[in-house]
């Protein structure tokens, strides 16, 4: 039992990565067979019944902008200039670029059409995995990693991590709410981004932790 606990503690990140990849593969299989559509319809039905209103719609439109390419590129450039460790600033831009290219590649491979029934905003391109959800999880998830590693003040660290976590989930929900993604698109985006982040942070951590 002790050896098993030690194994889990030493390899928890890779276990999570494995779970994310396997879950993503099963999800893709269900999408290809159209088995997931009942699940997607139920979740959108829940959101449309309990959430959609003239008050929440402008809020959803506002929140979804924090996952847009224009905002993320602009924010990345801003962070590049204000962060003293230039390697960290560059790693944020690099992370955004890699996650965006990965999302685009997956969309071109899977080519799932977007939902059309309840569109609140116009959106082009393929649906799976959700670009806003995947890239936001990768981008803000990496910021959470940097906050956890570099901010010593406990209250500031917890506050920022909580805020960024809520923002990630809110962006994903906003995509379903606005009718431009299925629930499975958003879940797929989160799964791919988490697996990707584990690889990215482990690859780059020694570089950004080196003293300039």
What does this structure look like?
With 212 residues, this protein is an all-alpha fold. The chain is built from 8 helices and no strands. The chain is globular and about 50 Å long.
Report the sheet with the most strands, covering strand number, pairing sense and barrel closure: none
- End-to-end Cα distance, whole Å, is 43 Å
Estimate the global geometry from the Cα principal axes: globular
Secondary-structure element pattern, one letter each: HHHHHHHH
* Proportion of helical residues: over 70%
Low-confidence stretches: none
Q: Residue-averaged pLDDT, rounded?
A: 87
- Could you state the oligomeric state of the chains shown? single chain
What is the number of E strands? Answer: 0
Number of helices: 8
Strand content: under 5%
Counting helices, strands and paired strands, the structural category is: mainly alpha
| Cα-based radius of gyration, to the nearest Å | 18 Å
